[in-house]
UniProtKB/TrEMBL annotation:
This is AraC-type DNA-binding protein. GO terms for molecular function: DNA-binding transcription factor activity; sequence-specific DNA binding. Pfam families: HTH_18. The keyword Transcription regulation applies. The lineage of its organism: Bacteria, Pseudomonadati, Bacteroidota, Sphingobacteriia, Sphingobacteriales. Residues 193-302 form the HTH araC/xylS-type domain. PANTHER family: ARAC-FAMILY TRANSCRIPTIONAL REGULATOR, TRANSCRIPTIONAL REGULATORY PROTEIN.
Length: 302
């Protein structure tokens, strides 16, 4: 069984020390050996990160499957997988014999000011790409060397170790971008259920809003379709079949749910709430909220 958990909870459950990077104003970075990620009490495998916040580069060893909205990729032995918090996917191990290593990092860790590159500008993190790469035995040795060097460096007191770790992360990214993507399966079962599930996951990743300075990055059906690399008409058709609602209806419903939470549980002004939910026009937000709830935002808050 795989349990998704936060990093802080993982360190408590696994008895592992928190690395220095968590508390420093440099963005977060860490590297793990997959076979060591388990709850000491239950033996369950733990995924110590929130996909909403972290990028991830994984060296996968063992049979597994990566499922995206319109793609399914079978991993037979060794592969390199790149994950961004902006594109949801499901990773399904075929058995318990899963080893390898992976590193996680926030966008701040590799911000343009530190590397000269924006993560989401890199081809490997673009929607529609196939970020899973089969590795030969020679490539496995080279990839493992980089991960082992990361693990060793993280435990040192070297003053500039995070600069070196950024270099190693970029080396992995460029290594992957030079590889040939793995082929997808020509036929996949339950495609509609998978697309629906990944849409809902992507929708939920936009919340909760934690600051009035935040603003939803995905607002329209096309925004979500582009991120999932499917046509907006196909996404609408699938969601209507599976859930009975259109993409826009599901997005609107979740926005209203978040608006209610913010109105009741924060002291943000209604203008701040409207902006955070993607409305530049307060009157438009108020009109839509009243249409969906029969209350104005002011009345609902009161």
């Amino acid at each position: 069984m795989i349990i998704n958990t936060s990093l802080d909870d993982f360190y408590q459950r696994n008895g592992a020390p928190q690395p220095e990077g968590i508390a420093r104003d440099i963005g977060h970075f860490n590297v793990f050996e997959s076979e060591k990620l388990f709850d000491k009490k239950t033996g369950d495998r733990i995924m110590p990160y929130s996909r909403r916040a972290y990028y991830k580069i994984s060296w996968l060893r063992g049979k597994s499957r990566a499922e995206y909205a319109d793609k399914v990729i079978d991993v037979q032995e060794n592969a390199l997988l790149f994950a961004t918090p902006k594109i949801p996917y499901h990773w399904l191990p075929a058995d318990s014999n899963q080893t390898g290593m992976f590193c996680i990092f926030t966008a701040d860790f590799l911000s343009p000011g530190k590397t000269g590159l924006g993560l989401d500008e890199l081809p490997i993190f673009q929607p529609g790409q196939l970020p899973v790469f089969q590795l030969s035995e020679t490539e496995v040795k080279e990839i493992e060397y980089i991960f082992r060097k990361m693990l060793k460096e993280l435990g040192t007191d070297y003053q500039y170790k995070f600069d070196l770790l950024r270099t190693l992360v970029m080396e992995l990214i460029h290594y992957g971008q030079k590889l040939q993507p793995m082929s997808t399966l020509s036929a996949s079962q339950n495609a509609s259920e998978r697309i629906s599930s990944l849409f809902i996951e992507l929708l939920e990743r936009q919340f909760p809003l934690e600051s009035p300075r935040q603003s939803l990055s995905l607002r329209t059906a096309k925004d979500y379709a582009d991120r999932l690399a499917v046509h907006v008409n196909h996404l609408n058709k699938v969601l209507k079949e599976v859930t009975g609602n259109t993409t826009s209806e599901m997005i609107g419903s979740r926005i209203i749910q978040e608006a209610k939470i913010l109105l009741k549980q924060t002291h943000w002004s209604i203008s701040e709430i409207a902006y955070a939910l993607g409305y530049d026009d307060l009157a438009h937000f108020s009109k839509y909220f009243k249409k969906q709830t029969s209350f104005t935002p002011i009345a609902f808050r009161a």
